[in-house]
Amino acid sequence: MSKVEVFPIEGIPEVRQGADIASLILRALSKAGLRVRDRDVIVIKQKIVSKAEGRVVKLDSVKPGDEASRLAQQQGKDPRLVELILGEAVRVVRAGHGVIITETKQGYVCANSGVDRSNVKDGYATLLPIDADASARRIRRKLCDRSGRDIAVVITDTFGRPWRKGQTDVAVGCSGIQPLLSYRGKKDRYGYELRVTEPAVVDEIAGAAELATGKLTRIPVALVRGAKFARGEKGARSLAIEKEKDLFR
Amino acid sequence: MSKVEVFPIEGIPEVRQGADIASLILRALSKAGLRVRDRDVIVIKQKIVSKAEGRVVKLDSVKPGDEASRLAQQQGKDPRLVELILGEAVRVVRAGHGVIITETKQGYVCANSGVDRSNVKDGYATLLPIDADASARRIRRKLCDRSGRDIAVVITDTFGRPWRKGQTDVAVGCSGIQPLLSYRGKKDRYGYELRVTEPAVVDEIAGAAELATGKLTRIPVALVRGAKFARGEKGARSLAIEKEKDLFR
Fold first, then answer.
1. In this structure, what are the phi and psi dihedrals at residue B222, rounded to the nearest 5 degrees?
2. pLDDT in tens, B87-123
3. Chain A: nearest CA to B20, how far in angstroms?
4. pLDDT above 90 as % of chain A
5. In this complex, do B121 and A164 lie within 8 Å of one another by their Cβ atoms?
6. In the prediction, which pLDDT does A1 show?
7. Nearest Cβ partner for B122 among A109, A192, A248
């Protein structure tokens, strides 16, 4: 096994609607003197993808409906924000202690449908990309074309989790990498057959990138080199557990 | 920000009861030509800590009780294994689709109370350390004393999670590192105050280590260098969400 390296990529400017994320990343990599290699993974925070795709909403433009107003009052939140949260959700999974946990249209279960007021202008909120796997595919195609390297792309967001405090960065979109690395049917060195072992490498890569970028510095991109993963285009969406297998519905 | 590096540490021999994990690690590091530095994090898989602490049970020595036999039949599992799972649990959180999710005595919610038959002799199962934070403190003390460096220790296990397929490695014990890196009260560059942002850096470090070690190779230890974290001794156990705040009980 070889070492894994995570490089924070500095020098990405403020991203506006229509920005070409791939170009911004390649320029920043070049400025940092980093040359991408085959199997490098470019990890991008959802926020800049959302901004480039125009998924930014002025809160003053939002008219909260009855359900949003009721839920907002219950949980002590801004009703306009709750209207956005419900608009992005297919269902509310839990609400309590000022937290609204929803299932998003992409199938992710997270706080506030990923709607977020941090790292955006005051009075605005960002929404998750409509299809972050498609965003990852588009960005990847450009990165590969222009660099001549076969690299992978992971788009991340910061999710909480039940039972454990704190949050970790996880993948909401990916391309050129299979989300799970399956060990099913493989045997350990005692001959025991692993039946359920499928590390969610995209999520571990997302978390590793977060360690190098942090939350406050203007570093929305990291390069992860040396991680073991399988190629594929299942997308991060394939991580969502099907209704009928979900023990926590 | 500087890069984060994850070195898989090869050359740890089979660990037996009573083994001095710290010595085995220092020897392997030295063989690998790696000199530890202040703020390095040594990440250790639970399995070798459990083995060193004698937390290995011969399945033939286990007599399943009524509850275990009933649950085993329901979920298609070995009743002896289920007896061990229940013995390590304070409650069964969910059971279905052949999966038993419990809350362990340490307060972790995970599959099978962390009882596992992989990477151990046939006919045996390993249990989680009784107090993995204490295990981490003991190992850390020796590592720091003998190396003269102020390093941190994280003990990991592989946990599934609700709603998302696959597993990630997370911390079950830690020392010399605070599990969360709090951004509470800090402002982003737009002046927005972050109120809930507390990355679970120990879990992200655990996942990053998994990327470098994998599941099949005999590499139960990794060194993570360059991650930002706070010093402290709250232990991984402090990650468990209190009953009254738990939206998913």
1. -135, 155
2. 999 999 999 988 999 999 999 999 999 999 988 999 9
3. 22
4. 86
5. no
6. 65
7. A192
| pTM for this prediction | 0.97
Q: Do A162 and A115 have their domain in common?
A: no
Domain hosting B20: range is 5-53+129-244
Helices (H), chain B: 21-31, 46-52, 66-75, 79-87, 132-147, 201-213
Nearest to A212 among B3, B158, B164 (CB): B3
Cβ–Cβ gap B198/A108 under 8 Å = no
Residues A16 and A66 in one domain: no
Contact B163 A190 (CB under 8 A): no
Whether the predicted pLDDT of B249 surpasses 90: no
Write the DSSP symbol of residue B16. -
Residues B199, B217: one domain? Answer: yes
CB-CB neighbours of A33 under 10 Å:
6
pLDDT digits (tens, 9 = 90+) for B14-34: 999 999 999 999 999 999 999
Residue A232 CB-density burial (10 A; 0-12 exposed, 13-18 middle, 19+ buried):
middle
Average pLDDT of chain B is 95
Asked if A109 and B162 come within 8 Å (Cβ–Cβ), the reply is yes
Q: Are residues B67 and B84 both part of a single domain?
A: yes
Domain end, chosen from A125, A146, A162, is at A125
Chain A CA closest to residue B165: A239
Asked which of A125, A159, A182 is the last residue of a domain, the reply is: A125
The DSSP call for residue A3 is -
Contact B212/A121, CB-based, under 8 Å? no
User: A242: nearest CA in chain B?
Assistant: B163
Closest chain B residue to A238, measured at CA: B165
